[in-house]
Amino acid sequence: MIIPTKEKGADISRRDLLKSGGAMATVTLASGVTLMSFGGKAAADGLKPGARWGLLIDAGKCPEDCSACVSACSKEHGWEDNGLDTDPQWIRKVTLREKETGRENSLPVMCQHCDEPPCVDVCPTGASFKREDGIVLVNRHTCIGCRYCMMACPFKARSFVHEPVTDQRTDSPRGNGTVEGCNMCVHKIDRGDGTTACVEACQATGNNAMMFGDLNDPESDIAIAVSTYASVELRADLGLNLGVRYQNI
Amino acid sequence: MKTLLVSVLMMAALMGAPVLAEGLLPNIPAALGEPHPEGNEFWRVNHPAILSHDRDLTVLDGIRDIDGSIKTCVACHAVEGPDAAPLTVASPEHACRTCHDYTAVKIDCFQCHNSRPEAGDWPAVLPSLGGTPESLHAYLERISQ
Amino acid sequence: MERITYRELRSTPKVWGVMALCAAFVGAAGLSVLYIEHHGHIVTGMNNQVVWGLPHVFAIFLIVAASGALNVSSIGSVFGKMAYKPVARLANVLAVALLMGGLAVLVLDLGRPDRLVMAMYTYNFTSIFAWNILLYTGFMGVVAVYLYTLMARGVDPRALKAASLLAFVWRLALTTGTGSIFGWLVARTAYDSAIMAPMFIAMSFSFGMAMFMLVMILTTSITRRVYSPELRTRQARLLGVFVAAVMYFVIVHHLSNIYLAKKGAYESWILLNGGVYTKLFWIGQVLLGGIIPMFLLFHPKIDTRKSYVLLAALLVVLGGLAQLYVIVVGGQAFPLEIFPGFEVSSSFSDGVVNAYTPTLLELSLGLGGIALALMIAGLAMKFLRIVPENLSDDNVDPSLLAD
């Protein structure tokens, strides 16, 4: 019996009823799924308790002319940037030039998956929320499109869908009038891929500027990396404890 | 009330001739997978509640093996369109629309969700558009077993 | 001294003409909303960098003015200036009407206005926006009770006093909430300041009084009723004080920002190099909305003349809209600083001033909000005994006006 963390009492009892006579349903549906060959690898269902998924980005390894992570994200989630101010960008490449020294640098910026996300604090309906494994998401079922989260986000990580969308990626629903942003490829994490589209793409280019992993698992590569080498958070002054860290900015 | 209405409609569909179905009842296309073990009437009545319950499991807790997954619904209930691709909800023959148009219940699922399986996930065999009284009758027979 | 009598407005072509004009604007706003809802916000000037635009300027103006309009009534009941009592009913009605107009604009600009009900049954208690939902709906309830104690016969004066005090405290909380929508945005240089809350309260006194005087002057002229020149002059001078208070907060806000090195870039932009925002600040907000009205309202010869008071109130409203445009849109147009110490560029407008050009749709939605507020107030005046019939100087006790 699975009870969602934020369910209403009435729904649970209805689910009990359903489950008592519905054990077959899962099996049959699952066989239906196999028949039509979706699915993929079997993985433990549900989020990993105690995890804190994060990214480590090495700006020193990120060439200015490479945007493999951006294209991969766009393809994975079905958003398109055609250069309009109203087009969404879940991830973007930012070029930096140090004012005093003139040193240039380049890195990708996406939702930083704060531990204390301002977008979650300000959202009137609770649609902007943080999963227990640290991923900050928009629940489009309750988003009313007020855009207060976009006002509050220190990283411009969110976009508002300005026009009707069709033929979305089935694993990444998105629609007119709601706010969206990097979801750390939550569908990939849930099915146990252990990586995100941007990280996969970055590794495929051979730059290896991005790393994905569980910051709370001391054995993980990312936890070892951040405990060994210096890394920083963006706008550390805000004290938001970000899930995305950068090196060599 | 809704349950009653659906039951009456079902009864009419089961007893009544295909001729009646053709004229008055929604032309629901046959689905591709195994019939729901709980029966179609159960799902006709309960699918909104199950869908909205299970969506929270997925969105909030990452549980993706659920009964009411819209991704699975649209794949199993896909209907082939004229271009040999599954129809989108823009078509009145889309499985969801046949009934929702008939009952005048507006849904906003497909403002965000894709109303058909993705190109890579298209089932090998798509049921073609129902439409004929025979196919509907066959479908009703199958689900009534 | 006669007893003040209140009467419904008579059905005259002028009254219905004003109503019809308001209805036309409301209708146009409705069409704009349908158009935006159908095509998405892409048809507006708003974008992913400037997410709140002209509709929010109007909405926040109306919401802020609503709590200020109530103040006219509080001056009588809470602060004991009995001369204000005859206009208390209108002040209450106008407060609710302005709030309704503002909320309508705010709600209709949502990406999914059809889902507004979500904001009622999924509720995030850490959101200042969500608190405001309670503060706004509660305001209407509290003001309704207050209005009842003003209008019903045989109400215990202590009940009136209690209701008016509650309404006064509530409106302070409400405007604090509205100001904090911006004040608590830590990420943006233009906001992130506790002064936003008291500044918004000062703005509400000023905008609310201006809207009240405009409505009072308009109503009394088209219905040929009297708006005691003595009372009007007193209110005009008070409006001048409120305008000065707003200017004070604006000066303190900018001076504090200039003193902080990290906000220096923003200040030099908004005060000197911000293009349309700099012009709106100096010409719209400071000159037209501040200095000229203060001159008109404090000048001992001019402040007694209706046309100049009317002009001053209009300028305060225009200056207020300019001020909110500078705050709301200007604050978002200034580039968000993610990498202090670096010059940045990207495909997502990093490091550049964000563009925003409002469309006619947004203007029509905003004006529709004002029209809706006036229409609600007008209908209330038409069918309820709200506006005094004989508010002449003789019937306003001059001794009660004394400061």
What pair of chains forms the biggest interface? A-C, 56 and 49 residues
State the total count of DSSP E strands of chain C. Answer: 5
Total domains of chain A, how many? 2
Gap between N and C termini of chain A: 47 Å
Poorly predicted runs of chain C are none
Low-confidence stretches of chain A: 1-43
Number of helices of chain C: 13
Mean pLDDT of chain C: 94
| CATH H-level homologous superfamily name of chain C | Formate dehydrogenase/DMSO reductase domain
Q: Predict the CATH topology of chain C.
A: Formate dehydrogenase/DMSO reductase fold
List its traits.
heterotrimer, A: about 250 residues, alpha+beta, Alpha-Beta Plaits, three-stranded mixed β-sheet, two-stranded antiparallel sheet, 7 helices, about 30% helix, globular, disordered N terminus, C: about 400 residues, mainly alpha, Formate dehydrogenase/DMSO reductase fold, two-stranded parallel ribbon
What would your notes on this structure say?
The complex is a heterotrimer of chains A (249), B (145) and C (403). With 249 residues, chain A is α+β, with helices and mostly antiparallel strands. Chain A has two domains: 1-39, no CATH class; 53-247, Alpha-Beta Plaits (2-Layer Sandwich). Chain A has seven helices and nine strands; from the N terminus they run H-E-H-E-E-H-E-E-H-E-E-H-H-E-H-E. The termini of chain A are far apart. A three-stranded mixed sheet of chain A has the order 8-1-9. The longest helix of chain B is centred in the middle third of the chain and has 22 residues, at 40-61. In chain B, 52% of the residues lie in helices and 0% in strands. With 145 residues, chain B is an all-alpha fold. Chain C has 403 residues and is mainly alpha-helical. Chain C has one domain (6-397): Formate dehydrogenase/DMSO reductase domain (Formate dehydrogenase/DMSO reductase fold, Up-down Bundle), CATH 1.20.1630. Helices cover 69% and strands 3% of the residues of chain C. Chain C is built from 13 helices and five strands. In chain C, helix 9 crosses helix 10 (276-298). Chains in contact: A-B, A-C. At the A-C interface, strand 2, helix 3 and helix 4 of A face helix 5 and strand 3 of C.
